């Protein structure tokens, strides 16, 4: 199970990479393996400003549909449009080509509320 130490994590199995005030967000290796083959990623919140823990989209796998929760408050400035044609990138490369959105953070102190890689490993029993 791949859990990069430089990223932050949520109890809802999203990962967060922050550079300046821009956060890149996707779902973890654990989440994609639990979901199975991902067939569709839907994000209709681009250009919207949402609070932390609000739903920003959904990920659809063969067997289920799961909500995606925003880890940090801010404006969703970009959706990874490559996922429209290749949603399976979330399965094959969840921390790279399978990223989902970029957010312009409105409160960087919220990063302190996210989990470290070690905390996340404890959560999932890795």
Report on this model:
- The chain has 126 residues and is an alpha+beta fold.
- It has one domain: Beta Barrel (OB fold (Dihydrolipoamide Acetyltransferase, E2P)), CATH 2.40.50.
- The protein is built from four helices and nine strands.
- The chain has helices at 29-35, 82-85, 89-92, 117-124, and strands at residues 8-9, 14-19, 22-27, 38-42, 49-50, 55-61, 65-69, 74-79, 101-105.
- The strands form two sheets. It has a six-stranded antiparallel β-sheet.
- The longest helix is centred in the C-terminal third of the chain and has 8 residues, at 117-124.
- The protein is globular, with a radius of gyration of 13 Å.
- The relative contact order is 0.27.
- The mean pLDDT is 97.
Q: What's the quick description here?
A:
One of its GO terms (cellular component) is glycine cleavage complex. The protein has 126 residues and is α+β, with helices and mostly antiparallel strands. The chain contains four helices and nine strands, in the order E-E-E-H-E-E-E-E-E-H-H-E-H.
Keywords:
126 residues, alpha+beta, lipoyl, OB fold (Dihydrolipoamide Acetyltransferase, E2P), Glycine cleavage system H protein, 3-stranded antiparallel sheet, 2-oxoA_DH_lipoyl-BS, 4 helices, 35% strand, Biotin_lipoyl, 6-stranded antiparallel sheet
């Amino acid at each position: 199970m791949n859990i990069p130490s430089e990223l932050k994590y949520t109890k809802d199995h999203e990962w967060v990479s922050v550079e300046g005030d821009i956060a890149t967000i996707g779902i973890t290796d654990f989440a994609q393996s639990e979901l199975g083959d991902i067939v569709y990623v839907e994000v209709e919140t681009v250009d919207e400003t949402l609070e932390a823990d609000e739903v920003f989209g959904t990920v659809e796998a063969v067997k289920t549909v799961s909500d995606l929760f925003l880890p940090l408050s801010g404006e969703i400035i970009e959706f990874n449009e490559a996922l429209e044609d290749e949603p399976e990138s979330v399965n094959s490369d969840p921390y790279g080509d399978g990223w989902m959105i970029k957010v312009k953070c409105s409160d960087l102190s919220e990063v302190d509320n996210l989990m470290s890689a070690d905390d996340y490993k404890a959560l999932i029993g890795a």
